[in-house]
Amino acid sequence: xxxxxxxxxxxxxxxxxxxxxxxxxxxxxxxxxxxxxxxxxxxxxxxxxxxxxxxxxxxxxxxxxxxxxxxxxxxxxxxxxxxxxxxxxxxxxxxxxxxxxxxxxxxxxxxxxxxxxxxxxxxxxxxxxxxxxxxxxxxxxxxxxxxxxxxxxxxxxxxxxxxxxxxxxxxxxxxxxxxxxxxxxxxxx
Length: 189
Description:
The protein is an alpha+beta fold. Helix content is 44%, strand content 25%. The chain has 3 helices and 7 strands, in the order H-H-E-E-E-E-E-E-E-H. Helix 1 (2-26) packs antiparallel against helix 2 (33-74). The radius of gyration is 22 Å and the shape is elongated.
């Protein structure tokens, strides 16, 4: 959710900054104060959004490095194609060993479980002051952490949470490797 908002902001503010600069250029002789303020504010917000996207890239690299360390420590094969995650936490699967890791990026904490420990899962939605939030709720056979949650907010939140749920269905009830016998095709191939 946060990443989507920042990307939209980055391009929106960039667009507004270009429009404001063009308006400012064409009105230079009029000394139009509101247009100049609009231009400066747009440039400022655009710069913040670009800086934020760099922070997101750095966080994503740290998340990947964290998964590499967990994989080495726990002797698992955690690859990006078997990860469902939001900005702060995620679940990475090793379908060959039938294990999953639930991790929290902010603290570095993680739990390792067998896929058979997943009891059930569901997608829920609730209204927040800022809009609708969707979550993937996963019940596991662990009395100290019986419920794991992944949050998917924003415009595409429900679709993402449903996609995570379908992926979980394929991993838990699908074949042992998590690989599909169906190969994706491209119209240009």
